Fold this sequence. Notes:
alpha/beta; 513 residues; two-stranded antiparallel sheet; Rossmann fold; 14 strands
Amino acid sequence: xxxxxxxxxxxxxxxxxxxxxxxxxxxxxxxxxxxxxxxxxxxxxxxxxxxxxxxxxxxxxxxxxxxxxxxxxxxxxxxxxxxxxxxxxxxxxxxxxxxxxxxxxxxxxxxxxxxxxxxxxxxxxxxxxxxxxxxxxxxxxxxxxxxxxxxxxxxxxxxxxxxxxxxxxxxxxxxxxxxxxxxxxxxxxxxxxxxxxxxxxxxxxxxxxxxxxxxxxxxxxxxxxxxxxxxxxxxxxxxxxxxxxxxxxxxxxxxxxxxxxxxxxxxxxxxxxxxxxxxxxxxxxxxxxxxxxxxxxxxxxxxxxxxxxxxxxxxxxxxxxxxxxxxxxxxxxxxxxxxxxxxxxxxxxxxxxxxxxxxxxxxxxxxxxxxxxxxxxxxxxxxxxxxxxxxxxxxxxxxxxxxxxxxxxxxxxxxxxxxxxxxxxxxxxxxxxxxxxxxxxxxxxxxxxxxxxxxxxxxxxxxxxxxxxxxxxxxxxxxxxxxxxxxxxxxxxxxxxxxxxxxxxxxxxxxxx
Length: 513
């Protein structure tokens, strides 16, 4: 596929055309048996190393903006106000005003995406956003002081001087910073965001040539849609193959270009790709001029954000920090209980203390989930193909107690520490879990969308009583509905609510067996 080599962004032409092709299926680990139609296990996601995360660059810039707003306020105070009114003792008051304005400035810039790519490297957009946001922040500060009847204590000379000096400082700093960010992105010092372009070949080349010079932080890959194959009706299988490929590439954004071969083709592709943990965009036309009047844009192209990532980078870090604190604390406090259970398992029946089973993780990556062994060692099922039923003869006497109280799940705190799981999230399902004689993910539409976040020890479905055996399509769909609701509604408060309800209602229940 011909692409532009002159673009500053790294451009990777995908070697597999987006047509029905056996080579498009991902290589699956030999330890995970799957059916021919299964999409289950994927190769581990490629790790990025050495480069500075783009999210950290934005956070540092936000701190710099706040520091400039407060610093210029105090500079004007001591250089103008304090000289005229020696010993006024009001430095703390003016510092408070400046701090409030700084918070309003950073909040406004954060809400409009000024600290995130692609705008972080767009100098013109940065200057415009800084000027409007700073003016709005000072205006809101004045309105607040007016409503509090506190404007009598405010020096107009200080306010005018501070506004002008801060604006000039912020604009100069942003002019320099946007250039620096662009240079760092071009040299690979900042981690490049990975964008996958999906569409017919002529539009792929055109879109890549337009995006490359404007967004140097992007690493582009192209995935060709064959209009003839789409018209022939093979779209669904090809969309599934594309989803597997994009999971393996660990892309951050997917931009679907117009596909005119069949009515509704882009929408069908978008519906399938909504299962990925990416920002999913649709570009109605590869025409930069339309971006000026469109409701949304991706760089120079008009685009609509169809499905954002469930958690932003900041939210992911907050959730991960909470996981580490809770898991480490719980392991420390529960260590006597864990040791006692380990000894009891060893005395109750021969075999290992722990049981490991491959489960679906974030973005469909398989991981070995850890549990206390509750079955006889020679009857354990590492594949998960055979469901555990009530009064299952494979379960030991001690195992029944551990399962009823969910103590067998506690070793998963280690999975949380190493990053495979979260404290709260959709429960991790076995790779080979079936409903009847078919795989869970083959019969439940939209199943893989639950893997857009890390699986959890407890979750939204579990606190609503959906535990235990899944022996019908209705139960499977009910669990998926709760899982998807959690993914869409995530917040730290929701996690804390689920955790509290799990503790209050108990880890066990009538369906825990």
